[in-house]
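Help!! Second protein's tokens look totally different from the first
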Amino acid sequence: MSAQEPSQRSAMAQVAQAHDHPVPDRHGSNFYTTDPALQQLLQLYLPADLLAHLQPYLQRMGELAGGRIDELASIADKNPPTLEHRSRAGEDRQRIIKHPAYEELERIAYGEFGLQAISHRDDMLGWQGKMPPTVKYALTYLFVQSEFGLCCPLSMTDSLTRTLKKFGAPQLVAKYLPQLLSLDWDSQAQGAMFMTEQAAGSDISNTQTLAQPQADGSWRVTGDKWFCSNPDAEFAMVLARVDGAPAGMKGISLFLLPRTLDDGSQNHYRIIRLKDKLGTKSMASGEIRMEGATAYLIGEQGRGFVQMADMVNNSRLSNGVRSAGMMRRAVAEAEFVASERVAFGKRLQDMPLMQRQLDKLRVPAEQARSMLFQTAQTLMRSDAGDKEAYALLRILTPMIKFRACRDARKVTGDAMEVRGGCGYIEEWTDPRLVRDAHLGSIWEGTSNIVALDVVRAIQREGSLPVLQAYLQGLLADCRISAAYRQALDAALARASALAELAAQDGGAVLARQAATGLYNCTTAIAMAWEAGQIDSPERLRLSQLVLLHRVLPRDPLASEAIPQDWLA
């Protein structure tokens, strides 16, 4: 027998096994138990007693996401909602007809896990006391790996509740909050935001919708809103210009619009049509025409955008979390295919070029995951009244929304390629991930708008020195070589200098470049810090790849490897 024969037989056995199961299928796996990095990071970012309590819920969500949620999401995607304008008896009564698969997804998210209420109740998931935002985002991170569309209404309900509690008059809060926080399917309410208009778009100062005061303290709102997701929600936050108010942003106020009036009749607004969207097909988005609809002022007149911005920022963070989750799903699918698929006598994961391609998928996915946890921790501190944390949150939120959402578009597309021809077929999850990923960089502000918001945080909140100090604190606690520490420190200094330049007069053209630089340096440092805390050489390696491939100058014609002195 030659020395080559055993290895040849092994290769032949692998090929035979691959022919038995030629298309690797990960369906049915538990997305939590098969993600050791997530388990390690939760040990770092959550108190031990809370994490121990949450284990059954995390495992349950992981099981559902890898099985039933995935099945329901595929069905709902192929059976989008429809709009019925009249009842069969000819009554002028609108309703959106949702597929039973979508309704089952709602029952899981709103009912079983209460993702919309975790941040606002003290008795969720069997835990007494307020849970940190990390819990909600960790569960959402698992859920969204299979269903993105429903996460938009979940986020808007959560954000509307937050805004109502923060700015609403006590009588409005007492009247409507119980519905928003109910876990009973028959009595709970969902939320929405009706903000976008054709003539205004991202320029809110051009809002044309008009609000007129009434003798009973309510308002009548008239106008068209062009892109309204979850348009049949029980409540929506609406931006409108108060009749007689000055032009520009100072004339814009925020209103709460109920779907049903106190007498049980429908409020005076209509869903004109539903949108035929590229992605998020499971969830309805439509056009709204308000015809003297009853609404209630939230907060102060003329401060509508400032108050809505709090809701938008919360939604932007949620959007970044969802992009992180979708990237994780895409990467996990690609890794599974590469580990199971045999070609030319080798598993794909053993081929050097595939190893490189998988790393190029892992890096942005893990960046977003670290940013998710860092921002969630900062949100908790900010909500507790830490002013420095607020300034930090104001820059971290647009950073994750801008960069993670853009990265998701490429990661989902490149991961689809790993599956090959099957990845292009709608029976698999890959095409839906690609379609849904494109919403993230549009919804709640396009990339330009959000990158400029990073610059505004520097200009108005003094966020840059706060971010620098925070990252220097993490860097001081990193267990890394002196050379790599110096490289991270130098990169942060350069990124900060570029951000300062972008914040000066005439510097707006650098906003995207500056936001990207800050995001990459922030995540490289955060990942290096995490690596030491959880003793993960792999996470440190990914941190180094962030710096090497996404920050430092590169020669496209050179073969590059992690510098040896970084590894010391």
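Here's the second one for comparison:
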Amino acid sequence: MILTVRTPLEPRCPDSTARQELADRLSRRRELFERAADPTPRPVRDPYLFPIMAALVPVATSRGGEVAYPGDPMCLYSALSLTVERSVARLERGLPEQPSLDDVAADWGRYPDDAYRLAEDGPRSVLVADSRTTDGHVFDPRIWDDVARTAFITELRALRPKVLLLSSVSAGHRYALEMAELAKEHAPGCLVIVGGRHADETVRYQDATGTADLSWSSTVEVIRDGRARPVVDFVVAGDGSPLLDLLLRAVALVMTPESGTTSVEEVLDTLDLVAAHDGTIKGAGNIVGLTAEEAVLVPVRGERIDASQLPSPYQAFSVRARFGIFTRAGSSPVGSRTAHVMTLDACPFKCTFCSESIQVSKRPTRFAVSETEHVAQRIEQLVDWGTEAAFFDDPVFWGGNWKAITDFCHDLARLRARNPQSRSFEWGAQLTVDVVLNRAKAQEVHEALDLMRENGCTYVYIGIESMAQQVMRNVGKNLLRRNPEAWVSKVREALSTIRDHGIRVGSSVLFGLDGENRDSIEETIEEIGRLIDDGLLVMASPNILTYHPGTAITAAHGQDRLDYHSRKDNRPPYTYFEEAYPEVVSRLLDEDDIWFIHEASAKRWGSTRNSAAESATPVGA
């Protein structure tokens, strides 16, 4: 299979020829669907709306003894926001008199009402077979085993989707390929579109040279060289929401009614026509279409978008997560109903191991620092929907901008003053040691931390990574190295500062970075234990370095061929850590080291070590 790179799609106004071609296509499509809907009585389903299904690809393979890690549900929810909004609007207004680009659309159903949002809680037990709400169109098994496989097949056969959307992190990619294969078998004619963090990390386009940069572990490459069957039709990487909306509009433009198949080639040839329809394109990234003969990469270079231009990810979905660290609401023994919220998609810092670094993700979509009031309004909306808490899942809260944090807290204060229901709402966020210890803005930091606490912040999560100086000198996180004891003393000072402002602190600890050995492992476990003993940490989460495509440490360790495609069931000790599989963890750790980390941290940290119910990732979605 050859690789072809097309000219980037960029904002442009359509010429008269393009307008006429689009008008002709729309008229022909309207006639085609009208003929298909002619028999009486008319079908219950609007014949112009085609069935669609989305799935959050799981990571885990067994139902016990594992840290809960759901993948990245918010990546999927965010990516669906525009296409769902368009579908719901089309459903509510009906078919317009004149042929329109949005005549044919995905059938996502209607938005959940308040009663539905309050009733639905925890992972979905009823899936998509006869769903009437947008929330019910997401298959989310959390575990990939025989039970989940059977349920997935049942849903495919019941819904017969014409499009299946799969969102996957790298650790779930092997299961995404299996789910795609099942879709081709049990829903013939279904187009399979894969996106998510794995796609973002593995599909790039070099603007300077006009060439594709595909990782060996990308969906495109594993299909091109035969490591996986050709069961994926499109891969979307980058700004998922506008790119997926563009792609699905192109799919809809060439869609045939009932059981007709949709050609990947036709969709690719229609993308530029759809892009030119409005005279503008939003978002940036890459769409790859996989045909029998070639992989066609279409770069999309649209206008930058701020998150405020997109619908709330929860507009179409219930808040189902419960986070054990939040208990103020007192409505559940497993914690408060908790929403994920993000103010930016990429971390402004450049840690060597992190796939969320701006160097790797290159995802600029975010709220502008002047849009704090908009984020506060979204919090108010979440409160109205029955949400009891929120965790700001940004790599660094508001990018570490203390003025934005202060402004946001003032906006929250106004919300709490006018909405009594919001006064019991609590929230948490992620910060870094150096952001907290910003010497030039020390007074602003202290005032902001007070404001955070006064306006509902009860928890801050900080990535400590290691307490061994021989490790931290290589990471790119310890930005202000003053002496050999700097990192340990800085960590303690940062945690003390936050605690002194009445906010609890949790942390992540990462083993397997450069400079790691058994001595540094023992040193880190002991030093974290001392922080726990001194009441500076209420939760500590041990993690094993997992190689992600595109990170500096992956390149430095020569791990350019990561097996994220072979079907394997994971096993202990790897299952005790998020994303860890034998083939993709740090080459500096052997299996004995990983067993030691698991057992020694459990012994030294006791109940403060995270459990499935108290992990940094909320349970549910």
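Reply: Different proteins will give different token patterns, so don't panic. The first strand starts at residue 2 and ends at 5.
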